[in-house]
Write a structure and sequence with these properties.
Layout: H1 2-15, E1 23-24, E2 29-32, E3 41-47, E4 54-57, E5 60-63, E6 69-79, E7 82-96, E8 119-126, E9 129-136, H2 139-144, E10 150-157, E11 161-168, H3 176-190, H4 194-209, H5 213-244, E12 256-264, E13 267-275, E14 280-283, E15 290-292, E16 322-327, E17 332-336, H6 338-344, H7 354-364, H8 382-389, E18 401-406
Parallel strand pairs: 1-7
Antiparallel strand pairs: 2-5, 3-6, 4-5, 6-7, 8-9, 9-18, 10-11, 11-12, 12-13, 13-16, 14-15, 14-17, 17-18
Length: 407
């Protein structure tokens, strides 16, 4: 009777239809066998896993499969009352192709005018904190051998000021790659002037250290005027470059955001500007609050993207594009292009939702399909880690990606 029962339970296990969930090449996979209906059956091993790149341990298949294929696996199992007799149950595992492999990665022409690398990254100091930036060409551009149109620039300025600028060149503009580079370099260079920074600093102090509302009001007006002059300078550099090369300035269309900052006795002053759909966000020290520091050209502006190369942005409404913020401290200051914003936040409202930012930083911490982790503590290779992370897969989102994080 005991042998009959053992035989029957083993045969029932052989006949049960096990469907292993499909895996995807180069993405972490995990499948656990549920044996509640077979309390006397134990799985000893799963054979033929070596060719997949997966391993079996504690009733679980896991790992990152190498390539797409249909694999025949042998489940080696036994009955607890007949441990010496091992049986085989055959199952199939389908590993789907990595969608990334379907996209070509054609290098941009190194001999072309205004050449720029397909990707770049940076790490360094920013105020009394650190900064890392990564900029990567999107798959849509890589597939056709086109250039990365995003760009960024980080600069330490006189008087312990720092600036980080990010730009996103318009895909429809033939020289957008140079437009984005010129924009960030021009605005950073403008604020490299000691005279201009002295004026910015004096008015920043008056704004936050003076008790006179009249002085504060005048100081705010002066700060915005100085920021305006910096933005206008960037426009003029783009306009002049277009003229020198017999381009239309439209050929250089690009968005622009920047954060100019300094730590004072009374707190961190962060002066910001934005045109286009790239956000600047400030997260509180305890991660309880997030602020969007610039006006974004989405929503009512969704039908007509705005660029720094458009003269019409320099009207009375431009004042709403500037931000003046003072905080005692912060955990992160983040600037990004829509190549990051669109897949990770999707809507402008999510940029001011702290729960969305918790999910975002959880993603950066490695909770993603690629297990790509950006380590803000052991940050020796953080710039390369961030560059690797920006290669994430998001269906339908293949634009250039640039992300700057001050931490």
């Amino acid at each position: 009777m005991e042998k009959t029962l053992i035989y029957r339970e083993k045969e029932e296990f052989k006949e049960v239809h096990f469907v292993l969930k499909n895996a995807s090449a180069k993405q972490f996979y995990e499948f656990s066998f549920e044996l509640d209906d077979f309390p006397n059956i134990r799985i000893k091993n799963v054979a033929n896993l070596q060719e997949t790149g997966l391993t079996f341990e504690n009733n679980t298949i896991s790992g990152i499969p190498y390539v797409n294929s249909l694999h025949d696996l042998d489940i080696e199992f036994y009955h607890i009352h007949d441990e010496k007799s091992t049986e085989i149950k055959k199952v199939h595992l389908l590993v789907n192709a990595d969608p990334k492999d379907l996209w070509k990665n054609i290098p941009a022409d190194p001999d072309a005018v205004f050449y720029k690398p397909d990707e770049t990254s940076y790490k360094g100091r920013f105020l009394d904190k650190k900064i890392t930036v990564a900029s990567k060409r999107g798959r849509s551009h890589a597939h056709e051998g086109k250039f990365r149109d995003d760009d960024f620039a980080v600069k330490e300025l006189p008087g312990n000021w720092n600036i980080v600028s990010v730009s996103d060149g318009a895909g429809s503009a033939p020289m957008a790659r140079e437009g984005s580079r010129l924009a960030v370099v021009a605005v950073n260079n403008f604020f490299s002037s000691e005279d201009i920074l002295h004026a910015v600093e004096k008015n920043s102090k008056d704004l936050y250290a003076s008790s006179s509302s009249e002085i504060q009001s005048k100081a705010k007006e002066n700060v915005i005027r100085l920021l305006y002059e910096g933005v206008l300078h960037a426009y003029r550099v783009l306009d002049q470059t277009a003229a020198e090369h017999s381009f239309s300035i439209k050929d250089l269309h690009t968005t622009l955001i920047f954060a100019l900052a300094k730590k004072f006795d009374f707190g961190y002053v962060i002066l910001s500007f934005g045109v286009g759909d790239c956000p600047i966000n400030l997260i509180s020290p305890d991660f309880s609050e997030v602020r969007l520091l610039n006006r974004m050209d989405v929503g009512e502006f969704g039908g007509g993207t705005r660029f720094i190369t458009m003269k019409e942005i320099f009207n009375d409404d431009i004042v709403s594009r500037f931000g003046i913020t003072c905080v005692n401290d912060f955990s992160y200051l983040v600037l990004m292009t829509d190549g990051i914003y669109d897949p990770k936040f999707m809507t402008e409202s999510q940029l001011e939702n702290i729960e969305s930012w918790k999910v975002f930083f959880d993603d950066l911490a490695g909770n993603n399909d690629d297990r790509a982790k950006v380590d803000f503590i052991n940050d020796t290779h953080i710039d390369q880690q961030l560059l690797t992370w920006t290669d994430f897969w998001s269906r339908g989102n293949h634009d250039d990606r640039t992300l700057a994080i001050i931490y």
